[in-house]
What does this fold into?
Amino acid sequence: MSFVPNTEAELKEMLQTIGVNSFEDLIKDIPQEARAGKLEINDPMSEMEALKLVNSLAKKNTSNSQFTSFLGGGIYDHYIPSIVGSVLERPEFKTAYTPYQAEVSQGTLQVMYEFQTMIARLADMEISNASLYDGGTSLAEAFLMANANNKKTKFLIAGTVNPLFLETTQTITAGRKLTYEVCAKPDGSADLDMLREKMTDEISAVIVQNPNFLGTIEDVFEIEKITHSKNALLVSVFNPISLGLIVPPGKYNADIALGEGQPLGIPVSFGGPVLGLFTCKEKLIRTLPGRIVGMSIDSDNNRAFTLTLQTREQQIKRERATSNICTNQGLIMLAATVYMETMGKQGLIDVATQSYQKAHYLASEIAKIPGFSLYNNLPFFNEFAITTPVDVCEVKEEAEANGFFAGINLIKFTDHKGLLIAVTEKRTKQELDDFVNILKKFAK
It folds into this structure.
């Protein structure tokens, strides 16, 4: 990245323009202990010396590989085949200009087409776009898409949807006067009686996450009946890996289905970059956000890929576009494509099965510890919530001291108190047993 020097006067003007008086005001929310501090660089350095300094600073970062991770909540520690990184490192992909409009190469368009095809088949939906930014923006676009189709502004949420997705949705849809109510029981699962009561002709769409944020598998078939009884749209939020085992959105007649694509061969990193998945029924295609690649033939009768239905996008329709999204997560989408092609149908089933079985083994062992209990006894896939006999922060600190990321403290994101634990195929029985032994220290 180029370095652009600015004078003190220019810096002051920029800070004032965005409403702060100093650079410190701009970063005040970053805790002091998380800051690297000022670099003590007094004398000029050679390139070799500068690289040594930078590498020494980088080693202070905590590496995810140093810990056994039970973190989830949308981003999961799955194994990534080495071929994924190898393909991403190819210069024709890695250094390509952001794929945009007519100059997109046939190779890039083919990858998009294959990605769309596999995501549509995975979710059992009719149409998929070529990806969005992340799961949160995908949910926001689903709200806007439903509103664009039926002009209604009220939404219902069946059960517990990822709170970060909802925060993103509120930010993106601000000013559109879209409102939602949550129909959930105390354990976080969908309250079907409340959903029936709230379901009126004024509802634009019902949103259900399956499995929900607490890991529970919802009664999506009953939710679909309630939703369509008033001609509202059914929006499903899915974990792509879970579809190796549980029923896909298309099977329960979802109108829009979306999800976070990070589990498909994308590193955990520090929470990004990630990938938005977005699918729908064909009848909604004109208001589908993002890019769609189609296959045709050229003047020589050869197969050709091309961007289609671009009149939906801002580069052509400007303020009348259905979405401000007119590109896709090109490199991250490529990673997901290579991952799915490498794993194949049986590979995805195996990953889902191992994640499911190991999660249930761990849940059963934790439930045996005095003072610990499962948040509910409902079906789950690879993620579940537990209550702890001591403050969750104590459990997390002890686990981290022993090389484990114990999970997510629910109170930071929801009204629920407990620990959200996710298990993937990477976890060994020894790791699961060692984690249980750590929790046993808090038995009461």
